[in-house]
Amino acid sequence: MSALQAPLAITLGDPAGIGPEVILGAWMRLRAERREPPAFVVGGPGLLRGIAEKLALDCPIVPIADPSEAMFASAVGLPVLALLDGPWHPARPSPDGARLALASLQWGAKCALAGAAAGLVTAPVAKGALAAIGWDYPGQTEFLADACGKPYRDAVMMLAGPSLRTVPLTVHVALAEVPGLLSADLITHKSRIVAAGLARDFGIAAPRIAIAALNPHAGEGGQFGDEEARIIAPAIAALKAEGIDAFGPVPGDALFMPRARATYDAALCMYHDQALIPLKALEVDEGVNVTLGLPIIRTSPDHGTAFDIAGQGKADPGAMAAAILMAAEMATARAAARA
Question: Are 118 and 331 in contact (CB under 8 A)?
Fold first, then answer.
């Protein structure tokens, strides 16, 4: 991890949620394991210090004025960019908390785009609280795509853990809407981005992509639906013609068995739960949300703000620790690809 030429930027997320405390817990865990990459938190030195004291966490906070200071300050404690701060009111989301979360995200994106940060790790935000202050994005992924000058469709969400990577083709839509949203163009477009991302950010020279079926038994020859024959199979044929190692459509009940998982590097799934249920069942507290298709590296723990347990010391920092490590690994792989 010390090979990074710049530190990672970690955003606060909503300060009323578990984001700040899992940041502290993740840093402590990685520090104890001697695996912590150089990183800094974008704002909140007083807030984080207060949380550490309240929860009796042995995590010294080191305010810094510039991201470059993090490479040295991390020897003393957790570097925190001192340009933003606010009070800590666990489990009580507020407009001020949403503004702090947004400012942290904005500054983190600027640092990553300017090269002052090797990658961006985002803590969870409350979309409703952000909407109340004028936020006009479905989520942080779309905000970051806009900040990078990319269309939303180029920012592809991949859920990744030690034994599985999945990509939902459609995300936050009703299940009844999924068939009408599927197209061969959508499948090929996202598959290209996934293949390129696996090669550039994960060092997989020839990525293997499994394409899930939509219907039971992959449609059973048209008895349970024709999307496999009409949409999915032609998309796979087009990807193969381009030299991308894609195969399927694989029935959803067969795609995630241990032997099947060994045959691919990522599974492209037709809808949200088809991708997230196996990832969360298998990876538990190590699931990471990765955004592919952007000029910057972005990871996030695969969980939300969890207001119900915020401030109680119950939040598991495992997913945040995994997100930090994965961002560092991706930055290292991307640097190697450029060399």
Answer: yes
Please, are residues 80 and 43 in contact by the beta-carbon 8 Å criterion? yes
Q: Where on the phi/psi map is residue 115: left (φ > 0), alpha (ψ -120 to 50), or beta?
A: left
Q: Note whether 315 and 197 are within 8 A (CB).
A: no
Question: Using CA atoms, how far apart are residues 245 and 238, in angstroms rounded to an integer?
Answer: 11
Cα dihedral angle (222, 226, 228, 229), rounded to 10 degrees? 80
pTM of the predicted model over 0.90: yes
Q: What letter would DSSP give residue 200? A: H
The two structure tokens encoding residue 129: 């609280």
Q: Which of 242, 217, 239 is nearest to 228 (CA)?
A: 217
Output the CA–CA distances (angstroms, integers) from residue 270 to 33, 56, 166, 185, in the order listed. Answer: 38, 44, 10, 13
Q: How far is CA 163 from the centre of its chain?
A: 16
CB atoms within 10 A of CB 183: 12
- H/E element holding 215? none
Domains annotated for the chain, with CATH where assigned, are 1-149+295-339 (3.40.718.10), 156-293 (3.40.718.10)
Polymer length in residues for the chain: 339
CA distances 88 to 27, 81, 100, 280, Å, are 19, 17, 11, 30
* pLDDT tens sequence across 291-312: 999 999 999 998 999 999 999 9
- pLDDT tens track for 76-118: 999 999 999 999 999 999 999 999 999 999 999 999 999 999 9
